């Protein structure tokens, strides 16, 4: 097709062709797995703001079974995928202690499938992992090179997923995050608001320390990493991301109730021993974010600020 003509109508057609040609050159295809979860839903919500640069393929198990290696490879190839953002995970931490095979199938084997498909088709992977890969006994924020020693089936499966991915696709970014919540799905923030409205009192663990993460902030960070990668090259490796600051589940609950205007529910601090669970939780899971901030020139909001933004967006509040 010619891009130049002496005819005005042809000129208009050629201008349209040039625009389409430019659009196809600029726009990159992005596969998002686990698209119905908290992070996937937040990525879907902001994706319309980035359609000039990226074309998103949002999939969950109904659209793409990532435990099927052949299906994953075929999808990545057929759709010319440039980046895979893996938000899919088995996250039922206590249930995983008994449901070991399925947990590893999703958190390890499926992640390897994505890595192999990426390598086979010239794509790159951004994979979301967890603070549960650490033993939770630290007394200062974890950095990416600290020793890993998961104490739960869930944590072990996520660590094996990290290792398998880096072997299958060295050009991968792994983002370890913690205490994720959003306006979507089931999470601690929505549960504490529900219980706060229904009950006169709540007992909440006060000796586990970490930092909440608004999935909307993490979603925006992932898009910024994509933009950065297109302009400056892909900086593979392991990174940490959560909101800034430190709190406990007890103090987190107090902040949730304050933000939601709940005043009739008394929140009582208890110890981990008083609230036994099948899976061991990290007592300390604060993540150091220096690496991700300096590499991608990021500014990360404080957890209280992001929490209040989320609460204001909840229909129930």
- Overall pLDDT level: 93
DSSP helical segment count: 10
Query: Describe the biggest sheet?
Result: 6 strands, parallel
Q: For this structure, what is the CATH homologous superfamily?
A: NAD(P)-binding Rossmann-like Domain
Strand order of the largest sheet: 2-1-3-4-5-10
Estimate the strand proportion: 15-25%
CATH class category name: Alpha Beta
Structural class, by secondary structure, is alpha/beta
In terms of per-residue confidence, which ranges show pLDDT below 50 for 5 or more consecutive residues? 1-10, 16-25
Molecular shape: globular
Tally of individual domains: 1
Task: Tally the beta strands.
Answer: 12
Order of helices and strands: HEHEHEHEHEEHEEEHEEHEHH
Which architecture per CATH?
3-Layer(aba) Sandwich
**What is the CATH topology?**
Rossmann fold
The level of helicity is: 40-55%
Gist of the model:
The protein is α/β, with parallel strands linked by helices and 317 residues long. It has helices spanning 8-26, 38-47, 69-78, 100-120, 153-168, 188-198, 215-232, 249-260, 290-296, 303-313, and strands at 28-33, 54-58, 81-86, 124-130, 172-177, 180-181, 201-205, 209-210, 213-214, 237-240, 247-248, 266-270.
